[in-house]
Design a protein that fits this description.
InterPro entries: PorA
Keywords: Membrane, Transmembrane, Transmembrane helix
Organism: Micromonospora profundi
Pfam families: PorA (PF11271)
Helix content: 25-40%
Structural class: alpha+beta
Protein name: DUF3068 domain-containing protein
Largest sheet: 13 strands, antiparallel
């Protein structure tokens, strides 16, 4: 093959090697992002919970609860850098009686998953600026403490890394966030409900929660979530008098499997862009470079082909007559004679 072919192969190989370097550094970050059209429903369940029946103003114990959380992406308000989620959470008992309902609208960075101020964010319809992580962890989650936002307390708390576990066939990082009791509202209730002789009193509604999250680190997907939530009414001295809700809500098995599949799918796409494609491009590029260099070196060692010999240039086989007085003249050796033939045979 000609040296030109080798040069083309070297150039093509170099191009693929550059692509192998650029894919994880440039292409992957541009493509691996929180989706704009996020759509998911998670289900958490609690056994033997205690709730306040507001119709009778009495506590009910031994209640089984189910919490449905729907997350929908607002594609129109999202862009290359941010995603916008509309979230609704509804907690019901076995009789489908509504215990609590809440809504949330948040914008987050599509790479870091951190909340960003944008797009009429609110909690239960009231404007509110979120902070920290919400609903997902970043791609490439690290073994460190993150700030995780609690919608009920309306504050971000440290989610501390506790260790690594196996869950649904995945290696996950376990984080725990603790919200100490904080007053979230006030409610007018009969005084007798909180131990007061007054017919009506304003009681403080307090909230506390220990949230545990099991996160697949490559994708940032929360495979399992658990909340040990306590809401109470307190009297004037700050003593808990009535439990509004006391429950441990955990992702059910079906939701965990659903989240694990989402994590595996996302991890597969990430690995494709950060490992598989770069390695394939790099290996193929290196092979093309080596093949091209081999062709160039081989062609160079062989040297250029001899010029074609014309019929009029054939060397004479006759020797000068020994009787001739004229000496043989070597300058009459035609161009392209012996020396050209010898090059062409080398």
């Amino acid at each position: 093959m000609r040296p030109t072919s080798g040069a083309i192969l070297v150039a093509a190989g170099a191009f693929l090697i550059v692509g192998a370097v650029a894919t994880p550094l440039i292409v992957a970050p541009a493509l691996v992002k929180v989706p704009l059209d996020q759509s998911s429903v998670t289900v958490s369940e609690a056994q033997n919970a205690t709730v306040l029946d507001f119709s009778t103003l009495s506590e009910r114990s031994g209640v089984n609860l189910t919490a449905h959380r729907a997350v929908r992406g607002d594609v129109n308000d999202g862009n290359a850098d941010r995603a916008v989620f509309n979230v609704g959470v509804r907690v019901i008992d076995d009789a489908d009686k509504e215990i609590t309902v809440s809504t949330d609208r948040v914008a987050l960075d599509r790479r870091t998953a951190e909340a960003v101020a944008c797009c009429a964010e609110d909690i239960n319809g009231a404007p509110f600026k979120h902070e920290g992580l919400t609903y997902t962890f970043p791609f490439g989650t690290e073994k460190k403490t993150y700030q995780y936002f609690d919608n009920t307390a309306r504050k971000a708390y440290p989610a501390k890394y506790l260790g690594t576990e196996k869950l649904q066939g995945l290696t996950v990082y376990k984080f725990e966030m603790t919200a100490e009791p904080v007053q979230i509202s006030e409610i007018d209730v009969p005084g007798s409900l909180v131990g007061s002789a007054e017919p009506t009193v304003t009681a403080g509604r307090y909230y506390a929660n220990t949230r545990t999250l099991w996160v697949e680190p490559d994708s940032g997907v929360i495979v399992k979530g658990q909340e040990k939530q306590l809401q109470t009414l307190r009297d004037a001295t700050g003593t808990d008098k009535v439990k509004i809700i006391d429950a441990t809500l955990i992702f059910n098995e079906e939701t965990q499997k659903q989240q694990a599949k989402a994590a595996k799918d996302a991890r597969g796409q990430i690995n494709l862009l950060t490992r598989t494609v770069p390695i394939a491009l790099g290996v193929l590029g290196l092979l093309l470079v080596l093949l091209g260099m081999f062709i160039i070196i081989r062609a160079t060692r062989r040297g250029p082909s001899g010029a074609p010999v014309r019929s009029g240039d054939q060397p004479t086989t006759e020797l000068p007559s020994q009787r001739s007085a004229e000496p043989a003249d070597d300058s009459t050796t035609p161009a392209g004679g012996r020396h050209a033939v010898e090059r062409s045979e080398s």
